[in-house]
Protein: Sialate O-acetylesterase
Organism: Hymenobacter wooponensis
Amino acid sequence: MKYKALTLLILLTVLATLVRAQNLVPVARHLKSPPARKEKFQLYLLVGQSNMAGRGRVEAQDTVPNPRVLRLNKAGQWEVAQDPIHFDKPVAGVGPGLTFGRDMAALDTSVVIGLIPCAVGGSGIDVWQPGAYFPDTQVKPYEEALARARHAMQQGTLAGIIWHQGETDSTPEKSAAYRENLRALIARFRQELQAPAVPFVAGQLPAFQRTKTEPNGKPKPNPSLKRINKALAQLRHDVGHYSYISSKGTHDRGDQLHFDAASARLLGHRYAQAMHKLQRAASPSK
């Protein structure tokens, strides 16, 4: 009996190891105090839906801690950032946030980066407004993002906002209003957070997202998705301190909806490059 129990224990240990190898999740999160000086703690708000929250498979490189990149956890505490950064749903995985944070930390070694994860999978832009409730996750995305940002800003300085959303709005009716809706959202965030010139970077939707097929079975591009991507580009002419990044060269994880981990990291690099360019434009001396 003793040998059977030991054999079972070994098998369970091996199985657990294999599961973690397929999708690594940090078993321990380490709390860390931010810098005492607010200007040395640069905060970034991460908002949108599932492709900002991240659905890529977590690998070893996504759990390597950087003491200068922190995240605000669900309880409102600062901890060393590791993927998953978000916690909107149990399937949260690798998104662009961690790579973005690492790059921003590398660009300015005098500061600590604070990531404020607030993206909510499946949320349309219509629930990113005051008082709107999202029943899928039983939260008010906009209100919660404001509350978490304000909490973080007690210890740091808001340095930027990154946004990836639009899959839910890829319909003829919703996509037609997307440009104006996002312009209003950016203005609300800036007003509510008393940061009128905070840089805002949005991400375009990937071409692999399809909703229809041709008679021959081949995927057919979604014209509403193209309309949203066009709106994201055109906002450069309407909104100051704004930029967008392309999703070209990215791949899905097999569901024609979510970025795989490598693509999410690629977007993280692009977000950082665009954010840094906006910041340099605002402060040429940097």
